[in-house]
Amino acid sequence: MSENKNSPSARTMSECKNCRQSAASRCAKGLCGHCCIPRCAEGVHNARHSIRGVEGVRRRKKWSAFWEQAMGLATRWLECGLCRHWSGFYILDFRATRKIFLNELKVLVQADAGEIIRDSHPVIGAVCPPCELENIVAWLKKHFSQQQVREAEDGELDEEDFCVGSTDHASATSFHEPPGLSVDTVLQVTTEQTGAKDGARHDHEMPSKDVARHSWDCHPPNVAMFELPANAPKDRLATKDGVPCSHYRREWPPICHQASKKWPLRLVNSPLETMYVLAQSILEQWFQKRLDLDQVLDQPLPKQYNWSPGSGEQLDLSLHSWGRWFWCGVRKNQWVPLPPDGTDFESRTLHGVPFETFIHTSSMYIVHRAMIGGLMPGTEAGKCGLVGVYAFRPIGNRAAVASSGYAVYSDLATNGLYFSPRFELAVNTAKASNDGVKMSAGNQQYAVPDGYYHITGLWIHCLSGNDIKEGKSSSWTPLDDWHPECELNARRRPQDACEDPSRAFQ
After folding, report:
1. Which of 114, 159, 225, 501 is deepest in the core (most CB within 10 A)?
2. How confident is residue 439, by pLDDT bands cut at 50, 70 and 90?
3. Strand pairing partners for 354?
4. Residue 309, CA atoms < 13 Å, CB-side half-sphere
């Protein structure tokens, strides 16, 4: 008896472009039912992209389209190792974490520009990096009306079989696993979902690169072991959709996360101590190549990163114990810019009133200019309509995870060692309060206006490709190859803000 040509077994199946699973022959995108979110067309894909035993399309129609699309976009991040680590830290299972995160998306999508958002659950910062959260929210705002979002009932998320977007939900329900990012659990997101045209952050759009593996002798490193590119800043701005933006949000030059399969990390065969001694030499020479930088900053020295636990919590030691931290204090009595007369540099007070310490996370592309001319707030309003240098108090796990999401790690010497800066600021919060200046942007983040902050030192975090690959990081690690042309010139701060429009994108 011949097989029916229209039977499922007889249909021609092709490979999914993303995950290499079977793809529907009629899919316009060449994707499987799991990856084709949003759907290319009705009826093309079998409805079963959840665990077996769950009813198909007819049952799922009772859930709003908003929840289904939000879940499809969030799955990649909900099922990664970092989310599992922090869900376990806060004693949350998969369903609880999913509900918290999807509810957060609903709040953000409904929020107007400049609106103050209530503080979110601390696990939000661990679910996905800030730039990716922004991408998801932007896509949902574009495709759903406010009415559609409001009609998405929170109670729908309590249903046990609400698992749209997950092919391995059963394995994802247990988050109590060792920390670390598992490449195998990271799912792909299409550029149609995020709206990214270049798609540089996603594996299926990443250009392949040749990876060098270095082998060093177990001796103190010397100059001959690495070569830094020439200092050739050209003020080329990072862009997204062709528009200048901050480096953590950029699509050009390409940037990726530690889980990328098509942009593998550079690895080295050498003991960690040897690698991180070399890192100090790289930093010293990097400073020497930049005019007057060594006149402002002290020599970089290994030091434990200063971060305190929040009220009633235990600090997660894995946050800052991996890699190597280097401290570069400013030369004596040389805060950038100089504080008012009457400042006591030792006690960090002004007429007896203490400055508060904040941390501004950024990229190596602005270090030279910032240490010579100072950090420059953007000219356009950011969160809650505030203009300023965005920063966190170095207190609590939540702020530590959130702050790290704005870092960009650059391979300065193209040898498997990645660097990212944190600016330590002395902030005159007392004066800001007296002047009626609002700085709180929600979720423990602050926008500090010009004139209320001074750089007191620079922390630089170094990670080896080995540490990143082994999943020792308990925070997101955006990575890039060093692009000398994107470094900002260290000219003195112009008097007229219009003379230097690039200052808005630090």
Report:
1. 225
2. very high
3. 349
4. 8
For the chain, what are the domain ranges? 12-46, 56-194, 203-213+243-505
Token pair recorded at residue 315: 């600090």
CA 113 – CA 133 distance, rounded (Å): 15
Beta strands in 306-448 (DSSP E): 324-329, 343-344, 349-350, 353-354, 356-361, 389-392, 409-411, 417-427, 440-442, 445-448
The distance of Cα 62 from the centroid of its chain, to the nearest Å, equals: 34
Q: How many other C-beta atoms lie within 10 A of the C-beta of residue 248?
A: 20
* pLDDT tens profile 42-84: 777 765 444 444 444 444 455 788 998 999 899 888 888 788 8
pLDDT band at 476 (very low <50, low <70, confident <90, very high): confident
- In this model, does residue 181 exceed pLDDT 80? no
pTM: 0.76
- For residues 408 and 249, is the Cβ–Cβ distance under 8 A? no
Backbone φ, ψ for residue 90 (5° rounding): -95, 10
The whole-angstrom distance between residue 118's C-alpha and the CA centroid of its chain comes to 21
